[in-house]
Amino acid sequence: MYKNDSATTTSKKGILHYLPFVVIALGIVFRLVMYFQNRNLIIDEANIVRNLDERNFIELLKPLKYEQFAPPIFLWFEKLFSLIFGYGEKAARLYPLLCGIASLFFMERILRKILPLNIVWFPLALMCCAPILIKYSAEVKQYVPDSFVAIVLIWLALRTDLLGTSKKRFLSTWIIAGSIAIWASQPSIFTLAAVGLYYFIQCAQQKKWQYLKYLVLIGLVWLAQFGLYFELILKAQINSDYLQNYHRDYFLYAFPKNFQECQHNWMRLKELLSNTGGWGTYPRYINGGLIIIGFVSLLLKSAKHFVLIAVPIVLTIFAAALHQFSLIDRVAIFILPLNMTLLGFGMAQLMQIKVPVLKWCIAAIGCYVLYYYNFLSLFREKFQFHELTKGFEYIIEHNGSGNELYVDCASGPTYIYYTQLHPNKNKWAALQGAHVFGWSEDNYPEVASKITTSKAYFIFTGGDSNIRDRHINEVKSYMHQTDFFQYAYCFVYTFNK
């Protein structure tokens, strides 16, 4: 494995020693800018907060309502911060933000331990600048906390030596850490499997078979925890027709039978690769090549580190082929830092070339990839998405009221959040009492035909534009459209009799 002489490096105080901290600082700034831009909650976020409001801590152990799925420890942190700071956007997004920032520091520790110092900056910079990681560090979902849990488990495995740690401490460390991980992150089971294999390889390499009984004991405790978690929460998710249908296009074909199925698998893996290090064609080819080189070189040089880094990725793809885990970008976030680590191993292998000019060219290629993989636009314009309250402002400015407002089903949860749960809900008091379409309610013509007010507002956020256009055309059969407002995927249509 690659070794760093930390004492020598520290004494030199060279740029390579401090560069990772500069990169981390940039990553923190990205995440804080996203957080303080404070965009509106979207439908899934609003539905999570509705569950938090309606349940106590114990009740959060049960499957959630409103087609939401999240692990209990994530929900407990969310509930705690909401009770302390209120049900505003910043309070609800505080836990993902803290996980996103903390992940950078733990990732830096991992990379320093297993990569040459002159390579650490590259995978760390990818992680710090990754748009998807920045975005979900300020969103009320468990995806970035999932990534944080995976990173901490790998850091803990590298830090906790099986043979150099007392048996009592080793047992207690991993029983506690593994149990917390299972209840904090659903995909942690993939990383825990890698941790178990990591220690098994150490036993095999050192021929210390007496330690296997401790690994078996820890594994049995983990399995018992996961079994309980499965019965309480996961079974409902696996049996959910909504969840299976929603993620159907993000599973893989285990044995593709034709070109279309092969193409489907490639598209899913290409999206994963793009989220790892850039969407351009050339960056994608570069990153794909580096990952392959890193995968092979790590397998040949260090079986135990290969297991720790690569096995969670392999297990995730295997689970997707069995239709047990979705490769939709946000759900698969937790393996992105591992992909980035493999990229680092690939670059480290190439940097062993003895020609200085080539080393500079390889570093320049890394900078080229980062050029196409950043979120610098955050500093130029506010990131906005489904800004429902902008539509509220428009309606109130035009003296609209709740009995004149009709809210599409995809906007309903957010409407409920802002008019009933948000700390500033009184600001939207005039819009309370609106008609909110249900998910199974597709009766726009019937509703439009019964409107008695002289004016009506129909509000949408995001969603399928074809469906939205159909609904509006149905309303036009009974009323005359007089105005249209659009702002950041919020759409308001004004109708008069």
Radius of gyration over C-alpha positions, nearest whole angstrom: 25 Å
Poorly predicted runs: 5-12
Distance between the termini: 75 Å
- Provide mean pLDDT, rounded: 91
What's the number of structural domains?
2
Number of helical segments with 4 or more residues: 22
Helix amount? 55-70%
Describe the main β-sheet briefly. 5 strands, mixed
Number of strands: 5
Write the H/E string, N to C: HHHHHHHHHHHHHHHHHHHEHEHEHEE
Biggest sheet strand line-up: 2-1-3-5-4
In one word, what is the shape?
globular
Work out the strand percent: 5-15%
Please give the structural blueprint:
Layout: H1 6-12, H2 15-37, H3 43-54, H4 72-85, H5 89-92, H6 94-114, H7 117-129, H8 131-136, H9 143-159, H10 167-184, H11 188-206, H12 212-238, H13 241-247, H14 259-277, H15 281-301, H16 303-321, H17 336-350, H18 356-371, H19 388-397, E1 405-407, H20 412-421, E2 435-436, H21 444-449, E3 455-461, H22 465-476, E4 480-487, E5 490-496
Parallel strand pairs: 1-2, 1-3
Antiparallel strand pairs: 3-5, 4-5
Description:
- The relative contact order is 0.10.
- This protein has helices at residues 6-12, 15-37, 43-54, 72-85, 89-92, 94-114, 117-129, 131-136, 143-159, 167-184, 188-206, 212-238, 241-247, 259-277, 281-301, 303-321, 336-350, 356-371, 388-397, 412-421, 444-449, 465-476, and strands at 405-407, 435-436, 455-461, 480-487, 490-496.
- The chain has two domains: 6-37 and 93-379, no CATH class; 388-496.
- It has a five-stranded mixed β-sheet with strand order 2-1-3-5-4, sandwiched between helices.
- The protein is mainly alpha-helical.
- The radius of gyration is 25 Å and the shape is globular.
- The chain has 22 helices and five strands.
- The termini are far apart.
